[in-house]
Amino acid sequence: MTEPPITLAAAWALHLQNDRRRSVHTVRAYAATAARLVAFLNDHWGQPIDRSVLARVTTIDLRSFLAKRRGDGLGNAAAARELSAVRGFLAWANPAASAPRTRGPRVKKGVPRPIAPADVIALATDVADDAAEPWIGARDWAILMLLYGAGLRIGEAVALPAGILPLGATLAVTGKRAKTRIVPLLPQVRDAIDAYAAVSPWPGARDAPLFRGAKGGPLSAGVVRKSVQAARGRLGLGDRTTPHALRHSFATHLLGRGADLRALQELLGHASLSSTQVYTGVDAAHLLDVYRNAHPRARYP
Predict the structure, then answer these.
(1) Does the pTM exceed 0.70?
(2) Which amino acids are annotated catalytic?
């Protein structure tokens, strides 16, 4: 019995993995984008999609695809990442064809706002994809997942010792004033750390740093900040999109979903409740924007 033919998205994933040595996260995300584009074009044009058909993709087709994705709730940074993946896929499918010219979405700069979950993944994926080595990409992905998924400060993340392995359901974190707090670990965060530990070339003693620099020394927080700065430029995010903004988003999203302020204070390691209360203002402003835009009887003060 013959094997079914491999899909275009799967073939591109193999190219990214074997020829381009992209991270596992990038391969998964880019292949998913390619599959979405092929499905969209199949429905859009009403015919099977192969390499020769992909050569016919125009700027109007890409705009229609992005409009559909934005309708699915995709944020600006994630849409920019989606467009980047589509361009790469089309260039791989037809190297001789000229790529359609489509400008990516712009992201307004100004007052810091929580980063949408899809944009967090886009940012983390871009940072991991740009890493010099696969293990460095896995390291950066794990760190950014810790900031957004567990609310750690960047300094707390890079200071974690290798002794935290093997991971459990919670993690003891030493923060400011040497105060230790216990934070829960989401399965996605645990998986990211385990994936990094599995490929790291720098095993060490339990008191050695978990996250290592390219030459094996302790990782500097500045290295992570620099990688995020480069990624936000590629994705069109504002200059206040920093590693700390992921912690900010962690807090705001939890509060928006009904988290207790005292519990959030414990998770963040704030010595004073007043430090945590700043997030109530951010969330209230967001809710007020939603109310004003959606409620038929809303009035501006």
Answers:
(1) no
(2) 153, 176, 244, 247, 270, 279
